[in-house]
From TrEMBL:
SUPFAM superfamilies, per the entry: (Trans)glycosidases
Protein's UniProt name: Calcium-binding protein
Gene3D superfamilies: Glycosidases
InterPro entries linked to this entry: GH
Organism placement in taxonomy: Bacteria, Pseudomonadati, Pseudomonadota, Alphaproteobacteria, Sphingomonadales
Length: 296
C-alpha cells in the first residue's frame, strides 16, 4: 500500500489478526434451490479450498426453501456476510434474529445493498435515479442505510455484527453507518494489481475508512472482449492470476476479507457463468487447487 500502509486501527469489532484462510470468503447462492448450491456440494468444495468457512450471500428469508440450506451450512461451520436486500426493516431484523437462534454466531458481517447504482433503492416513497449512487445522489439509499444501521445497532442480538458499506461509491457518506469500506474489483488480464490496490488504499484513506472488505473479485473464463467485468482468461491463466491476486490482497493490511466471485461455475460459455473455482460437474478448476496451496 506504500505510504498509506499504516492507517488507523482496525474497527473495534474486528481487532484480531485472522489467518490467511479466514480472510477469504467465497460467493454463493443458497437461496437458489434449483442450483448447485446445496450443503452436500458446498461443504466438500470449501474443504478442497483448505477449509474456507466464510461465504457472502443474500440475506436469508424465513419460510423459503433456501432457509434450510443456509442453516445447514451454518451448522457445518460456515459464517456469513449477508448482503441486504431492501425490504421492510422490521422483517429483515426478525429473520436475522431467527437465523442466529437456529445457528448461533453464524453471521460475521452484514453488507448494505449490492450495487445500488445499478439497482436503485426505493424507500419510504422515494426512488433513487439509476446511477445516482455513483454521483452522490442517492437519498433513498442513504435514508435506508441510516434507518437500518440505527435498527441494527440498537438491537441487543445484532448490534455486535460489523457493517459493510455498499460497494465503491459514497464511501465517505456511508462511514458513519459502517465498520468497513467496500469495493468490487475485476482485473483485466494485463492489470497491474499492486497499482490497483494502491488506488484502493488511497480511496479508503480519502473516505476516512481504515479497512475494507473486497466483496467481489473474480476472473471469468467465459464470454468475450465485450464482457461487463473484464475479458475472459484461460483456465490456466485463471489459476495463475487468481493465485497472484490473492497473495497480493492478503499482503495488504487494509483489506480485512477478500470475497472470491464465485464458488461454482454454472455451465455454458457466458461471462457470468464462468467465474467459478469449481466446474458445473463439481470438479475443481486449476484455480481451486492453487488457492488451496496458498491457504494451507
Amino acid at each position: 500500500m506504500g505510504s498509506l500502509a499504516v492507517l488507523a486501527l482496525m474497527p473495534a469489532k474486528s481487532r484480531a489478526a485472522p489467518r490467511s484462510r479466514d480472510r477469504i470468503m467465497v460467493q454463493g447462492r443458497p437461496q437458489d434451490t434449483g442450483s448447485l448450491y446445496k450443503v452436500r456440494n458446498i461443504i466438500p468444495a470449501l474443504d478442497q479450498l483448505g477449509g474456507v468457512r466464510k461465504m457472502r450471500c443474500r440475506d436469508p428469508y424465513s419460510g423459503t426453501p433456501g432457509w434450510n440450506t443456509y442453516v445447514g451450512l451454518a451448522r457445518e461451520g460456515v459464517t456469513f456476510c449477508f448482503t441486504l436486500s431492501v425490504r421492510d426493516i422490521a422483517r429483515t431484523l426478525s429473520d436475522l434474529r431467527a437465523f442466529l437462534a437456529a445457528a448461533p454466531s453464524s453471521i460475521w458481517a452484514i453488507e448494505f445493498p449490492n450495487e445500488p447504482d445499478l439497482n436503485p433503492v426505493t424507500y419510504k416513497g422515494t426512488k433513487d435515479a439509476r446511477l445516482g449512487f455513483r454521483t452522490g445522489n442517492a437519498p433513498a439509499f442513504m435514508a435506508y442505510i441510516g434507518d437500518m444501521a440505527t435498527a441494527l445497532r440498537s438491537d441487543p442480538i445484532l448490534s455486535a455484527i460489523p457493517l459493510i458499506a455498499s460497494n465503491d461509491y459514497m464511501q465517505a457518506e456511508q462511514k458513519p453507518y459502517t465498520d468497513f469500506g467496500n469495493t468490487h474489483i475485476y482485473p483485466r488480464p494485463a492489470t497491474n494489481v499492486e497499482d490497483r490496490l494502491d488506488v484502493l488504499d488511497r480511496r479508503l484513506a480519502g473516505a476516512g475508512q481504515s479497512h475494507c472488505v473486497i466483496t467481489e473479485w473474480g476472473r471469468t473464463t467465459g464470454g468475450g472482449e465485450g464482457n461487463v467485468t473484464s475479458p475472459p482468461v484461460s483456465l490456466e491463466d485463471q489459476r495463475r492470476l487468481l493465485a497472484k491476486d490473492v497473495a497480493s490482497v492478503l499482503s495488504r493490511p487494509t483489506v480485512h476479507v477478500l470475497n472470491i466471485y464465485e464458488l461454482f461455475s454454472w455451465g455454458g460459455s457466458s461471462e457470468m457463468n464462468n467465474f467459478g473455482l469449481f466446474n458445473a460437474d463439481l470438479s475443481p478448476r486449476p484455480a481451486a487447487v492453487a488457492l488451496r496451496s496458498l491457504l494451507t
